[in-house]
Design brief:
Length: 881
């Protein structure tokens, strides 16, 4: 039985406690309440203090900081892109423009992966396969990403079609279409964003001058680089308030600052002249196997305005990273195998002999096989760094050869030596020196050096005009000796040859030449410079210098941008002629002009085309002055550069002015390392220059002299049995245009019209080097049209035209029936009579004719759509340097 508690003991324990005094319980209760109250008050006070401090912090101390944060959260500050300015030719032709394109952006983290494969296939189809389905699926599968670019640079229609497809709702719960329980959802998260792209509507046309932009719209080369700050414009801003969901707040005004678009560039480049240059250079590259490109400049000698500047081959600024030259691409494609000697030779021409030696040493080319050569000529094995070679090749294609690359000017430089000698007063044009074919200076000393004229020709006693005519090196060595290094170098500097020209194009190279001290210490440096063999200059430097010898002596800054305009067409900047200094007197300039005209002939000592090479540039009726130059190329160590066949690598050039008595334009053409059977400037570049002049002189309205009757008749020269190059020279000299029907190689075997045929001046002779069968054309209907318009139309169809009556009257008949099939070059005679139609009809017809005449320059440019030209085999070989 459980033990009961001991009540007695328990009672005793209770009685041992002390009982409170009366009133003590009430006091304790009051104190507790007070303590609680104080604690509450304390907490309230502390809370108020914290609140007050917080309010102080928010409202006073950190108020500005929080105002800024609030503004940043509520304000949307959007940049409004500026449109990059356009570029136009002197004729108003659009050369470069910026357009809005669209990029497709996806948020893969919000894309239903069950539908990605199907969607990728459909989007690829909408893009016409420009982006593969596999690539799209790869991007859409990156579920940890919120931003992936699916397509770039597409048009608005295509972009919207993709977004419409992406926004299409699909059943995602497996129910059938039309089932009320079907759940429709958007399974793709995509949107489009605008971007800007730079377009060059004419492809490779003028690419070395225009340059290109990178993907961010920054100018990289050419005018895009040098005028980047003017073209790019100033972005605008749109500032507005928006809520947490990104919507603009009601009753809140937005603040918009419009973008200022970039300025437009209007060039001095003339479309017709540029087209002629590019066509002729392209033909020359193919015909003469030119290894390291060709370049040409047409410049107004009185202002410095560049009317045409071409480099061939060119690149496509719409796709600048694509290598356009097949030979270079083939070398790059084969970079995993041993390069041949020919491959190495091509690279040496395009990249430079020393650059190729460096990349060979660095193992950039020719990885797995035996290396062709090293600097000592030994074969070596090296690994490859293909990307480095690719970059070098791309840059070699981008360069504007007329501005950024140096070449040896050769005997064209003798014009400056002659002008300096005459202006110095140390000698006159009648000063004679003897040419014995070769000359040894400082014999039996360490400075002994032998010079020669071309092929060792002996010219005998020559005055200055004769020395320029025969391009006698020995004459100009003696001129330099008479002048002294000090006088010579002072003029060398005055011609601007120790500085860049300041042309408004980027990356202009500075010429390399001997200093006055070097010329004084080693006189052979002075002698070699006097005939153009010791200095490397840019083509634009030479153009400016030659122009100064014939325009009255004034050295000018060349330029290619005529003016800049804003969006509304207002001219905001206009180029002005910049005359740096007068280098020689007008009297000296007049003498140089006369000697240059004597070089080309037909007003001077001889009318024999084969008398000297410069005559190959002659075009009937025009007063043309010229000088050719052929230079043997040296590397940076002063050693000659050799071709695989053992001959020297040459730079050949020709400078022409017209009209020679009062020059308006300079034409300067250069080819770097041609590999034809002949490689003198007189045999290649002079005739090409003549072809250029034959097309641009009539277009520019340069008058022919009194010896040429544009309304008269010409007897066609017989070209059969002569080289195609000689045939072209003969046609130019007769005032006739020419075209090759099959190919420009070998001898002419057939021509139409035949030699001895009398045709209207300016007619076209069709030359054949392979076939003796006439190529034919169909005669169009010319009746009812003005004689001028009808002549243009018939010439475009391949027939020549004679007009009986006034060219401004209407054609009433033609001597060959409409629809007749005739040989190219057949002469169709048109009979015209005054038109009796109403004034209104005349105005309408005149407008039609004027519209057709607007195309005349292009037709004229194509009239000599021949391959490049040279002199015949019997041409003078006097010109060497």
């Amino acid at each position: 039985m459980p033990k009961q508690p001991d009540n007695k003991n328990q009672s005793t324990r209770h009685h041992n406690r002390r009982s409170p005094e009366p009133g003590q319980n009430h006091a304790l209760t009051l104190n507790g309440r007070i303590m609680v109250l104080l604690l509450v008050i304390g907490f309230i006070a502390a809370g108020c203090g914290v609140l007050i401090y917080k309010l102080y912090t928010l409202q006073i101390r950190d108020a500005e900081q929080y105002r800024v944060q609030a503004a940043e959260q509520q304000l949307s500050d959007t940049q409004i892109p500026a449109t990059r300015g356009s570029i136009y030719s002197a004729n108003g032709k659009l050369l470069a423009k910026s357009s809005v394109v669209w990029n497709i952006i996806a948020n893969p983290s919000k894309c239903n992966q069950d539908y990605v494969a199907e969607a990728s296939q459909k989007i690829s189809e909408l893009l016409n396969g420009s982006v593969s389905a596999e690539k799209i699926q790869e991007q859409l599968s990156k579920t940890n990403s919120q931003y992936r670019v699916i397509a770039k640079g597409i048009d608005m229609v295509t972009a919207q079609s993709i977004i419409d497809y992406a926004n299409t709702k699909r059943i995602t719960n497996g129910k059938a279409e039309g089932d009320p329980d079907a759940k429709y959802e958007t399974v793709l998260s995509m949107y489009k964003e605008s971007s800007s792209t730079r377009e060059y509507p004419n492809g490779m046309y003028l690419s070395s001058v225009l340059g290109f932009c990178d993907d961010s719209g920054n100018g990289m080369y050419g005018l895009e680089k040098s005028y980047d700050e003017k073209l790019v414009g100033t972005p605008g801003r749109s500032i507005s308030s928006e809520n947490a969901w990104g919507y603009e707040l009601a009753n809140e005004e937005s603040d918009t600052h419009a973008a200022i678009n970039g300025y437009n560039l209007n060039l001095t480049i003339d479309d017709t002249i540029q087209t002629v240059l590019e066509t002729e250079l392209s033909n020359a590259i193919d015909d003469y196997d030119v290894q390291n490109r060709a370049s040409a400049i047409v410049m107004n000698v009185n202002t410095g305005a560049v009317l045409g500047m071409a480099t061939a081959p060119q690149f496509d600024p719409n796709d600048p990273y694509n290598i356009t030259e097949p030979k270079l691409q083939a070398i790059l494609d084969n970079a995993g195998t041993a390069l041949t000697e020919d491959d190495i030779s091509v690279l040496q021409s395009r990249l430079g002999q020393d650059a190729v030696a460096d990349i060979i040493a660095d193992g950039v080319v020719n990885p797995n096989g035996t290396k062709s050569i090293d600097e000592e000529g030994n074969k070596i094995d090296v690994p490859s760094e293909k990307s480095q070679l690719q970059g070098m090749i791309r840059e070699a294609e981008w360069k504007n050869k007329a501005v950024t690359e140096l070449y040896y000017p050769g005997s064209v430089f003798k014009l400056m030596t002659a002008a300096a000698a005459l202006d110095s007063g140390l000698m006159g044009a009648d000063q004679q020196f003897y040419c014995g074919g070769d000359l040894t200076v400082f014999p039996n000393t360490e400075w002994e050096h032998s010079y020669r004229c071309a092929e060792g020709n002996t010219h005998g006693w020559l005055d200055m005009a004769g020395a320029l005519n025969h391009s006698c090196n020995l004459y100009f060595i003696q001129v330099a000796e008479k002048m002294s290094a000090e006088f010579f170098y002072n003029y060398y500097q005055a011609f601007g040859l120790t500085q860049t020209t300041g042309i408004d194009l980027p990356y202009e190279a500075k010429g390399i030449s001997k200093t006055q001290q070097e010329m004084e210490q080693v006189e052979t440096d002075l002698y070699s410079t006097a005939f153009g063999q010791s200095q490397k200059l840019t083509l634009i430097q030479m153009a400016a210098a030659v122009a100064s010898t014939v325009n009255g002596g004034y050295l000018m800054t060349p330029y290619v941008v005529d003016n800049m305009t804003d969006d509304t067409g207002n001219v905001v900047w206009q180029a002005e002629t910049d005359i740096k200094r007068q280098v020689v007197s007008e009297e000296v300039s007049e003498q140089i002009r006369a000697m240059m005209e004597n070089n080309v002939g037909h007003t001077g000592t001889s009318n024999d085309l084969d008398y000297h090479g410069c005559a190959s540039a002659y075009v009937a009726g025009y007063r043309i002055g010229g000088k050719s130059g052929t230079a043997e190329q040296l590397d940076w160590k002063g050693a000659y550069k050799y071709r695989p066949d053992g001959d020297y690598r040459k730079a050949i050039s020709f400078a022409a002015i017209l009209p020679a008595d009062d020059p308006e334009i300079l034409v300067l053409v250069m080819m770097d390392d041609p590999r034809w059977i002949f490689d003198y400037a007189s045999q290649i570049v002079a005739p090409v220059t003549g072809n250029i002049i034959s097309q641009i002189a009539p277009y520019l309205g340069i008058e022919r002299d009194a010896s040429y009757d544009s309304n008269g008749s010409v007897e066609v020269p017989n070209a059969i049995g002569t080289r195609w190059t000689s045939a072209q020279v003969k046609m130019n000299a007769a005032g006739l245009s020419h075209r090759f029907v099959d190919t420009s190689d070998g001898d002419v075997v057939y021509q139409y019209p035949a030699g001895g045929t009398v045709v209207p001046a300016g007619s076209t002779v069709y030359l054949y080097t392979q076939s003796t069968t006439d190529a034919t054309t169909t005669v169009p209907d010319a009746t009812g049209k003005t004689g001028t318009f009808a002549a243009q139309m018939l010439k475009a169809s391949g027939v020549n035209v004679a007009i009986s009556g006034s060219a401004s009257d209407r054609v009433v008949s033609q001597d060959i029936e409409v629809g007749s099939v005739v040989p190219y070059g057949t002469v169709v005679t048109l009979t015209t009579e005054p038109d009796g139609s109403s004034d209104a009809q005349q105005d309408a017809d005149t407008s039609q004719d004027d519209a057709a005449q607007d195309d005349t320059p292009q037709d004229a440019a194509g009239e000599n759509d021949q391959d490049s030209t040279t002199q015949d085999d019997t041409g003078s070989d006097a010109e060497q340097q």
